């Protein structure tokens, strides 16, 4: 049996491990697409605002789910060992990166720019899990550049030997550190793809709720 029924269930469990942030100035930032579902559940449980941090994984040629790096706004991470293992040439990597930069730009526009003020606040970056960690680290470094007082990376599940680099993350929260880890999806009964429409609906719902609270 998997650890989580779906991303909503994972978010509820993760929220319990972040309960001490309730009522603070923290902001929840989900990594699209699936991470935004987990983040929405966390944000709702803790009564914190929800936003997104746009990241694109650089997948190996022919094995797109295996990350050889990741990009975000102003951030580029490439893991040389992973590139060699995948047998990718510099041309292969350039081709993948060009396509992912186009998708990064498209998602940034589709999701509304996602440039909220994080100055001196706590930024809690949420995804549905960590495998290689490239996307999560890229997201955290992009968030760090926006001037938060603290960056917290929070995921429901990760490999037991994975650790977050200190230059990107001040605190790593993960309730399930697994030994026999091969993919995030193995820990979910339902790990179906999240659509752009679902992500945008969650972000709009949070924005509408925040506006209502501000105007009451």
How much of the polypeptide forms β-strand, as a percent range? 15-25%
> So what's the CATH class of the domain at 7-54 and 118-211?
Alpha Beta
Total helical segments: 6
Helix content range: 25-40%
The ordered H/E elements are HEHEEEEHHEHEEEEH
Mean pLDDT across all amino acids: 92
The secondary structure category is alpha/beta
Side-by-side strand order of the widest sheet = 2-1-6-7-9
Kindly identify the CATH topology of the domain at 7-54 and 118-211.
Answer: Rossmann fold
Instruction: Tell me about the largest β-sheet.
Output: 5 strands, parallel
- Structure summary, number of beta strands: 10
Record the SSE blueprint:
Elements: H1 7-16, E1 27-30, H2 34-46, E2 50-52, E3 55-60, E4 63-72, E5 75-78, H3 80-86, H4 90-110, E6 122-126, H5 134-144, E7 150-154, E8 157-159, E9 171-173, E10 176-178, H6 196-215
Parallel strand pairs: 1-2, 1-6, 6-7, 7-9, 8-10
Antiparallel strand pairs: 3-4, 4-5
Helix pairs in contact: 1-2, 2-6
Structural key phrases:
single chain, 216 residues, alpha/beta, Rossmann fold, five-stranded parallel beta sheet, three-stranded antiparallel beta sheet, 6 helices, 10 strands, 38% helix
Describe the structure.
With 216 residues, the chain is α/β, with parallel strands linked by helices. The protein has a domain at 7-54 and 118-211: Rossmann fold, CATH 3.40.50.2020. It has six helices and ten strands. Strands 2-1-6-7-9 form a five-stranded parallel β-sheet, sandwiched between helices. Strands 3-4-5 form a three-stranded antiparallel β-sheet. α2 packs parallel to α6.
């Amino acid at each position: 049996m998997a650890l989580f029924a779906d991303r909503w269930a994972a978010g509820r469990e993760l929220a319990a491990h972040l309960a001490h942030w309730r009522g603070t100035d923290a902001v929840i930032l989900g990594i699209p697409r699936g991470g935004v579902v987990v983040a929405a559940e966390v944000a709702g449980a803790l009564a914190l605002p929800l936003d997104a941090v746009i990241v694109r994984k650089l997948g190996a040629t022919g094995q797109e789910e295996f990350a050889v790096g990741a990009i975000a706004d102003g951030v580029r991470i490439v893991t040389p060992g992973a590139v060699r293992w995948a047998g990718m040439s510099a041309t292969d990597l350039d081709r993948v990166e060009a396509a992912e930069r186009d998708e990064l730009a498209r998602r940034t526009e589709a999701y509304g720019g996602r440039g909220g003020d994080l100055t001196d606040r706590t930024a809690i970056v949420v995804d549905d899990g960590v495998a290689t960690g490239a996307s999560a680290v890229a997201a955290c470094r992009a968030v760090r550049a926006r001037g938060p007082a603290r960056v917290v990376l929070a995921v429901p599940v990760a490999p037991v030997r994975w650790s977050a680099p200190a230059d990107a993350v001040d605190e790593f929260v993960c309730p399930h550190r697994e030994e026999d880890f091969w993919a995030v999806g193995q820990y979910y009964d339902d790990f179906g793809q999240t659509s752009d429409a679902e992500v945008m609906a969650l972000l709009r719902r949070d924005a509408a709720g925040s506006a209502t609270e501000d105007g009451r």
